[in-house]
Amino acid sequence: MDAEQLRENAHKMVDFIADYYKSIENFPVLSQVQPGYLHNLIPDSAPHHPESLQNILDGESPNYFAYYPSNSSVAGFLGEMLSAGLNIVGFSWITSPAATELEMIVLDWLAKLLKLPEDFLSTGQGGGVIQGTASEAVLVVLLAARDKALKRVGKNSLEKLVVYASDQTHSALQKACQIGGIHPQNFRVLKTDSSTNYSLSPDSLAEAISRDLTIGLIPFFLCATFGSLNSIVSAYCFIELVMSDALFAFMIISFNLCTEEDGASKNEQPHPELEFQLAEETSHLYVQVGTTSSTAVDPLLALGNIAKSNGMWFHVDAAYAGSACICPEYRQYIDGVEEADSFNMNAHKWFLTNFDCSALWVKDRNTLIQSLSTNPEFLKNKASQANMVVDYKDWQIPLGRRFRSLKLWMVLRLYGLENLQGYIRNHIQLAKHFEGLVAQDLRFEVVTPRIFSLVCFRLLPPHNDEDHGNKLNHKLLDDINSTGKIFISHTVLSGKYILRFAVGAPLTEWRHVNAAWEVMQDKASALLARLSIE
Amino acid sequence: MDAEQLRENAHKMVDFIADYYKSIENFPVLSQVQPGYLHNLIPDSAPHHPESLQNILDGESPNYFAYYPSNSSVAGFLGEMLSAGLNIVGFSWITSPAATELEMIVLDWLAKLLKLPEDFLSTGQGGGVIQGTASEAVLVVLLAARDKALKRVGKNSLEKLVVYASDQTHSALQKACQIGGIHPQNFRVLKTDSSTNYSLSPDSLAEAISRDLTIGLIPFFLCATFGSLNSIVSAYCFIELVMSDALFAFMIISFNLCTEEDGASKNEQPHPELEFQLAEETSHLYVQVGTTSSTAVDPLLALGNIAKSNGMWFHVDAAYAGSACICPEYRQYIDGVEEADSFNMNAHKWFLTNFDCSALWVKDRNTLIQSLSTNPEFLKNKASQANMVVDYKDWQIPLGRRFRSLKLWMVLRLYGLENLQGYIRNHIQLAKHFEGLVAQDLRFEVVTPRIFSLVCFRLLPPHNDEDHGNKLNHKLLDDINSTGKIFISHTVLSGKYILRFAVGAPLTEWRHVNAAWEVMQDKASALLARLSIE
Hints:
Two copies of one chain form a homodimer. By secondary structure, the first copy, chain A, is α/β, with parallel strands linked by helices. The first copy, chain A, folds into three domains: about 5-65, dopa decarboxylase, N-terminal domain (Up-down Bundle); about 85-415, Type I PLP-dependent aspartate aminotransferase-like (Major domain) (Aspartate Aminotransferase, domain 2), CATH 3.40.640.10; about 415-534, Aspartate Aminotransferase, domain 1 (Alpha-Beta Complex). Chain A is built from 18 helices and 13 strands. In chain A, helix 12 (about 330) links the parallel strand 7 and strand 8. The first copy, chain A, is globular and about 75 Å long. Residues about 60-70, about 230-290 and about 375-385 of chain A have low confidence and may be disordered. The interface between A and B is large, with 152 and 154 residues. Chains A, B: This is Phenylacetaldehyde synthase.
């Protein structure tokens, strides 16, 4: 790196990025590009001679970058920029003491803000680590649990190992099972329904475990879900607010998929019609990837007790809603996390940190290391044996790793706890306000109780005809989204097609929520009027 | 993001990073920090109130960041910065057409520069994808190969699947096997020796396969290594050039490990003494992680034919030396890559791209998707079925992904092919020059033929006493590194303790190579003088 060359060009790039954000409101809300569009704009091969940065920046249409994600912040960006500038590849303590230790410290900080049990702190046998995504977090703990179990029951027993989760669990768990060689038929996707607000019932878990034990299978892993409803919307969607005097929009492109179509229960597809509709939609804007959404907050304490008494690993996926637990009034929802072996929260979802930054805590770091180190004996040096250092390469899939703690550190320092709490509370207030608006309109119903910042609602089915209701809400969603002013997502819960309104963008204000609701009401009125004529 | 707030703070950060690079020469070459040092410099918990950026930047001692990595460039940094600024999480085409398509295009560009077979281009059934690291690259293709094989032979045959590689292969393959549930005893680490310059002999592969077939095992995966010697040095080391009038240094901290101690052949540890020494060293600077290093360039064509005739997946790991193949004169070394099912090269190693950017190409993208998609049926929308779009989430472990193609795109455009070729050729010239210096000093020998930019050499053992020679070279390494002026790494090949000199830092010049050699000669003279007195 030549320092002055870096300085000059990086200042140019800063202005390019700032101008880009400044002009965002002039962009069309929805990119209308077709597959292959970029291919037509870019030469077929790399240039032979160098180009200048100015030339490159001048050539970039903002339309190259079709979508604008939400949950970043200046603080997160600055941290990411610093990390890129330092370009440290700190896979073990010795390769970068700073990258390793800052990560330990910042994750201890965050654990304390979340009031996680002390066992999760780096000062004991556990500790935190930044993974890229929740998918990697659940994968590494699944592997640790798998190998721990196989050590107990024999390495040829892989085909007997059973994983448990509810049908509200993110499909990342299914992918982790595929990777780890868990047999698909041993992945128990336990049904939930509205009677428990789509949370996993301890009774149904206990029953499933007992059934499996009877036929000689080995339960070894339970994944509980905390706030999965939100996790879908903010995890895998891009929510953007595009404002001008005349135009505003939430751009919510949400990606979720019914576990009915996605999980082990392939043979029970209760809603072929919905499935077809969803499949159709994948060619439009809102591809569905992930899980059925609900307000599920699994009862951690009861589930944890069952897992513990069966010698199972207990993982809590709080990827999205975990952030809310920095507010004392929401911390109660993870009561029982004391029973967990591992806990995951994505700082890149609802915590103003640029992607990627998925915080994972474990109680026993040695189980991770046993699974993911290729040289456990060899690395037993004095520092490691005395538990003096952490080599994060043995806590994750890749060997190399970026200095990701910098951005979380920037967010924590530049915001401070009080502003972060204010950020969370504001979103929840806005969602509560929207919920109130829906409740006042008797044509609609709020389908599941709102806890955090997402509201599940729908037009009530005329004459209690659920089939008709599903078609109606599907049509309403299309009508709303085709305005180009607002984009909302949907899900399917207990066979009902449901609309979802999520608040997650840093710049969202009351007026945007009100205006969004007006669009929805207008479209509902028009739709119902058309129907009554037909 | 508030655009003006971003602009103001990002400009400050640019100056902080540029100043940091400018002042690098004033830093001590070696950080002398102790485990836990950062803990003492940072408060125990996150701040309650926000801090200002200026406050944070003022507080940062450069000593927070103990090491300075090498293979970044202004171009790579700018690309990473733009990616952070856009914060796009483009896991499927629809979530960011730009991120998806630019990645396809840039990897097509790079494939053409490397003259990879057309099957690897995105225009056919294959295509390229950016993984974080070579570890993830080899993992995803191993999983694809595993599941393809299990589909053929039955899902309960996992314990029969066998993986083949040489003892020069990176330990990432071992980790991938662990993750994928391949039985440790089915991971064949085939011995190499100096007779083939540590390349994998097709005969020994054929023999091993035939032996396994006889006992009912199922060979399914072969990993060939291309330029592993270099891959260690640049892959997992930080090479930094710190210059001032009085002081210069290559800072090479290399991480490699003997496969003898690391692989399946745990029972044959021919060098307990060396092992002990290495283990000791892990508490010092040069932790050993990875593989035995050699000049291994496996014979791709012959190996590929064997793999093909046995229905096996053939992966080529060219993580480091692959970069050299953009020069016509080095392209011959990957002749036979036409036989490969997958090929991996790390742009973050020797291609001026900031970490992380590991390019993987496959011939049949559907095998990856079959293994790594959780919803292959569901996502069969018109665009996907017509092969119109790529959803990269199904080519990798995580779901979310960063816009990493931007930095590779910046490097390719800001340098252009001719400068990139010049960069590679310059390093190889410098290494050749160093090789010449060593050859002229009769006390030393060059141990393996140099192909790329790494020289393996040692002090000749007095009286052909190899044991003594090993101790001597180990002592020499210590003496050289303890000058604080230069840091080199070592390896063990066929029981010989060997020193390694790698050229990989963008700023390296002839004078640095000469000066480094002077240090080595001085230390050798002093050491030999001491010995003759004793």
